[in-house]
Design a protein that fits this description.
two-stranded antiparallel sheet, alpha/beta, Rossmann fold, 5-stranded parallel beta sheet, globular
Length: about 270
Amino acid sequence: MRIATLALTLLTFACATATPPPPPPCNPALALINATVWVQSAAEYRASSIQTYSTARRMLDAALADPSWNVEEGTSDPSQPPAIILDADETAIDNNGFETRMIRQGKTYDAESWKQWVSEAAAEAVPGAANFLAYAKSRGVTPFFITNRDKDEEPGTRRNLEKLGYPLDPNLDTVLVRGEREEWKPSDKAPRRAHVAASYRVLLLFGDDLNDFANARDKSIAERDAIIDANAALWGTRWFMLSNPMYGSWERAITGGTGTPCEQLQKKIDALQE
C-alpha cells in the first residue's frame, strides 16, 4: 500500500511539474484550404455564381426597358448609352489558383507573388460571367471593370480578360485600375464609378466585396451590416454580390488589419460564436 501511495504521489508531482506541451505550430495558410477547395470543387459554388448572373440577365432586360433606371443616383439621363460595372477579382475572374499557390508556400498573401500571378494572366472565369457579359454586349451594354489592382498590373489584367473572351472596347478604356489617375489612388471606387456615370447610364453593379458597392473601409461588423440593410432593395435587382470566402475586407472588420498572420488567425478564432 505504501509503495502504491508513493508511486501515486510521485506521479502527481511529475504531472504538476512537467512542462506543458508546446502549442501546435501556426500555419495561417491552412485557414484558406476549405474556402479555396470549395471555390475549386463545389458544385454549390458554381450554382451560386450562375444563379447570380442568371438573375442579373433578367434584371438587365428590365433595366433596358426602363429609361429612368440608373444605379448612380442623381445622374439619370435616358439619352446616355447603357453600361454595367464589375469588379474583376472573384467577380469576373477566379484566382483560386493563386490561393492554392499561397497555401502550398505556407502563406496567406505575398505582394511579389501576386504581381507574378497577374502577369501570367492565368485566372479562370467566374462561372456564369462569360455568358452574361456576351449577352450584355449583344444588347448594346458596355461593361466596365473597376478593380483595385495597381496601375502596373493593368496589362496583365487586360490580357487575362481578353483570354477569357470578355468584351473590351479597343477604342475605350473600360478597365479602370487603382492609381491610373491621381484621383483614383485611394481604394474607394466611388470616383471611378462617377467617371463612368458621367458618360453612361449605369444599370447594374457586380462585386464580391462590400467596397465594390459602398465605401465600407475600416467599418465595424455592425456598420457593415447596416450598409447591407440600408440597401436591401438593391440586392438582386441592381447590386449583385458574388461569393468569395477566400479573402476580403470582411477580414479587416474582425482583425483590425494589424498583427502577424498568426495573430490575425487567432483573432478570427476568438471571434467565433457558438
